[in-house]
Amino acid sequence: MQRPGLIGERAIGLFLVAFLALNPPILSIFSTEGFFFGVPLLYFYLFGVWGGIILLIGVHSLAAKARHQSPTGRDRGQGG
Amino acid sequence: MLNAWSILLVALAYLCLLFAIAYYGDKRADAGRSLIANPYIYALSIAVYCTSWTFYGSVGRAASSGIDFLPIYLGPTLTFVVWWFVLRKIIRISKAYRITSIADFISSRYGKSTRLSVLVTVIAVVGIMPYISLQLKAVSTSFNVLLQYPEVVMPPVSSPGPFVTDTAFLVAMAMAAFAILFGTRHIDASEHHEGMVAAIAFESVVKLAAFLAVGLFVTFGLYDGFGSLFAAGREVPEVARLFTLEGGARYGQWMTLTLLSMAAIVCLPRQFQVIVVENVNEAHLEKAVWLFPLYLLIINIFVLPIAVGGLLAFPAGEVDADTYMLTLPMAAKQQSLALFAFIGGLSAATGMVIVAAIALSTMICNDLVMPALLRLTWLRLTERGDLTGLLLFIRRGAIILILLLGYAYFRLAGEADALVTIGLMSFAAAAQFAPAIVGGIFWKGGTRSGALTGLTLGFLVWAYTLLLPSFARSGWLPVDFIYAGFLGIELLRPQALFGLEGFDNLSHALFWSMLANIGGYLALSLRGHQSAIERIQATLFVDVFRHSGAEGVSRLWRGSATVADLRGLIVRFVGRERAERSLTDYARLRGLNLAKLREADAGLVSFTERLLAGAIGAASARVMVASVAKGEVVGIDEVMEILEETSQVIEYSHRLEEKQHELERTTAELRAANERLKELDRLKDDFISTVSHELRTPLTSIRSFSEILFDNADLDIHDRRRFLAIIVKESERLTRLINQILDLAKMEAGRMDWQMEDVDAKGIIEEALAVAGGLFTEQAVKLELNLDPNIPHIYADRDRLIQVIVNLLSNAVKFCDRDNGLVVVSAAARNDGLYVSVADNGPGIPPEKRKLIFEKFQQANETLTDRPGGTGLGLAISRQIVEFFGGRIWVESVPGHGAKFAFTIPNSRVAATPVAELGRV
Fold first, then answer.
1. Which domain holds residue A39?
2. Residues in chain A closer than 8 A to B43 (CB atoms)
3. Can you list the pairs that B238-241 forms with residues at least 24 positions away whose Cβ atoms lie under 8 Å?
4. pTM of the model
């Protein structure tokens, strides 16, 4: 049984990770002259992380939807 | 050939296609079969975020500063990560209270304040002006560049000529026409523009396709894929520099852009329009939250490759990087691709302009002009007839005005800056709404005065640090203003305010404007002056998931109004037909007869206000309703009570739900009990039929022998005696059987008369052996005794216990070996009481019978031809008795090696005490 409130907490967790990964100083680690599969490393890193985040949003929204549709999954006050 | 006419023709054909789609979308909506009611169209419509800034400007930005075109698209993704908290809540609020624009949202939250709605509208209009001019600039530039074909040169910048023949002006007017046609066809209380949304979604597909087409052409047509393109770029230091981010200032700007775009995705009026107002179903958000970021990702993949390709193709810098999307195909003599790219850019620009114009015109009409007109009492607007025409006129006028303002900015200041720089100014203006919105939906303490102060200060600082310098750069203000400061005061230099240097202009402006904005908002809010209606609205917004629906609010009005007045009001603002339909729906829902009703109840007053809010905004609606309804909003305490009551109702329904679960559980239990009862009933029937059978056997025997005796008077005495003996024996058996059945029935019914006392177990065993002794001698069975000297006292019924032991003994005798019968009786003290066992050396009991044997009328060997005369009730009775004493009875057996019946009875309470020990000694 999933703990109520988890949907929101996971969203915040993902946000924090995404914000860190997509901003300096983490970003500056990848800002090198290196190339990866012929693509600049920074460019590769940004699109890779971005795609990963989108995937996780998708997973998260599926979970939210599942809860939304289950008869016991009521979202009272979750948004607050 | 690409000439002015063919380009115009294609552009016109494209716009006609858009018209057709929008028209079809509206038709479908009217027919009730919505075209846009799916998450994919919704996500595509949000992609109106990608304007010609994305289409042309990103490439230009990438060509000048590399990868930092990207944070503008990463920010929205971050906001969409927390959609559960932010977007879902804003949408829920807007649906519940019929919010029609961002100005309406902010003003509603802070007590339906007209001053706030006016302020937000002004900021939005002034702030978006540069953004619209950006689109006009992009379209006219791209058109003029395309016209130069086959030459790849920049069109002359200076002297755009009289505005009537200026491309940008014509573009502006065409867009105004489109926006008017689809945004202001009628006044609808729901403010959905389905046709427009369908057209916007289509435009998103076109611009994505065009961008990908150019991107693929550059990457795989001009080069052999990403590897070879980047490898070529690596050789040129000018290009290689774009692949990394260097320097602290660049990092600061990266963060600034991320934060700005996080706010802009919700705060830009057009984004608010498509994400919130045009949302037809909250559930669409669940898919759109990942589809839209995915769209952004895809459209950005080729930005850097195109920029690199452009820099390599035009190393001398003779071509503006903002036009690479067109000039690269043109240089490669790809006419149709260049034309397709132009159409893509056109779709990006028109999409943005149309949605922005509609959103802003709604705001201008509802939140700026109408409140003002309603206040001008000499106009007697509150008493005039149908006002829908007036509303439409104002909106159409506003659309034209907005595009003219955009054009004016383009003529005044637009030539000096790159596309992205212009766009970012608008982002910074829209971001000023963020504190009031975020504070408004999460913090009940945010006040009207706080929001007013914060927005005013933030907007002024924005204008001083970003807008005025852009005027100065284009020569409209003296350029000294930038370098020497306002009135020559160095501390007031707009791009180094109070001596703050070392930041880029944008970060600098964002820092100061947000400082003023958030500071003002917090400071005034913390002073804590909040009127009743502010507190009501704050609670309704922040707790929207608790108070959704307007049930609580409808009772906040204690005034009185006539139904006729309210009806008149609605008719004037939404038209007769729609008014009647809405009212009829309302009446049907509430079971009211409006024709008979004279005085409107609070529900109808509130319904009217919400209906009007959909057409003219919350602030104006409040003024209008107040003009016909006498009375006032009830006091704050009462309001809080009502809201509290609403929560109680929710709590109550929650409890109801729990009760229901409980009920379901009980029902299940009852059903199980019923099953058990049915089973018992069946058992009882079995029992009766078995008992009848068992009774009939001796009866039949008695009857047949009696008949023989009756019919044959001449039987010899020997036979007679024999028959009579059988009759007597069978009668005894019958009596025994009936006695046992009675006993069992009494025990099961709990009506047995028990003589419970503290008894000496050893004495009882010996007595039972004495009773059964006859059997042993009769059957010649050997008896072996194995009695522990310390047999405890137990608490039991003496006679019943003897009955149990005799039962076991007689069973053992009956079933033991025919020739060498041996029965072993053991008794011992166990730690928990008395243990007695009776073992025989008969055939034993198969495992599957061991449980059954204690049931009524069950015998181990039914096929035994000569039934040993048992009734089949002995063990059942024994079990009842032993269990009544708190003990347990069971059987152990190895087939072929006899059976051992054993039982235990717990120590008597008395026996456990030393007194009993003494007594026994």
1. 6-67
2. none
3. B238/B311, B238/B315, B239/B308, B239/B311, B239/B312, B240/A33, B241/B66
4. 0.68
